[in-house]
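During data preparation, we tokenized the protein backbone, and the record follows.
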Amino acid sequence: MSRRTIDHARGLLKRLIATPSFSREESETAALLFDELVSAGCANVERFGNNVVAWHVAQDSSAPILLLNSHHDTVRPGDGWQTDPFVPVVDEDRIIGLGSNDAGGALVTMLETFLKLCELPSLPWTICFAATAEEEISGTGGMAYLAEHVFVNERRPALALVGEPTSMNMAIAERGLVVLDCLAKGRTGHAARNEGVNAINIAIDDIQWIRSYDFEKIGPLLGPVGMTVTQISAGTQHNVVPDKCSFVVDVRVNECYTNADVVDIVRSHLQSDVTPRSLRLRSSHIDPDHSIVRVGEQLGRTAYGSPTMSDQALLPEGIPSMKIGPGDSARSHTPNEYLRLQELENGVKGIYELVTTFLLGKQ
């Protein structure tokens, strides 16, 4: 990988940091990325809302599609920043700025890999690069939109690499998410006369089941399903037995269950009404014996299961996918977020090496 490519990657990351791109407000970074691809000579670049998609089409019209994806939206900066979050600061060996680690570094490495692949005249796969919006809020206008309207039929990817900070190791599985709104129903009465049916007591029994229940299937990559009660509300005044008690359950689903499976199991055990907010944030995984995983292991990358979610959850169902990129997930959404310069350089080189070794069988 040339010094020019590495310097270009640094410059692009700095420009992305300097361009605010909160979820649903990514139009300026979308324009930046679109112009970047066009100016690099890419002939097939499209924009869908704030998503930017580019294609390097194989000569064989039936060639499978490899998707290189990362997101360009960020969370809003919290308190504790010692520098302006939108002014990229190079401090010794690191670039400090909002989105530098999550997921600017990964986005830039995917884009640079795509541009280098475009220089190759004949590839056995069609390559698609997608910079997606709304990842931080799992919105309907990002990967979810592309999955429904773009990545369909002959444009459906056969494999996806999703750029996130994984220290360049391979997250070959990640947990899904179901949020459950639960409502325990009782009957009002006067507290002094011990009347009515206390909905809080019903909720307590249900919450105790949630705390103690162990799902039977434990994933080899993601471990057990996790359930945590995160919110609870009941009562109108001190002397009235409450007839309603609502609580919220955060469920992290492993690779052994569908979201619908988990909801059915919970419903069968609770007295409370159980309503899932959505079933679309699925767990995802790729076969540990998939050829790209084996290539990654040969290149010294470690495979693991990730507890955090990404756009993998919203890919068209059934597409094998892997999460990989420079940076450390522990830095995401923190004040003074940064990416080390060496991490960025290693990421640009590492993603290109992984993809070309997979596609062409040579390093």
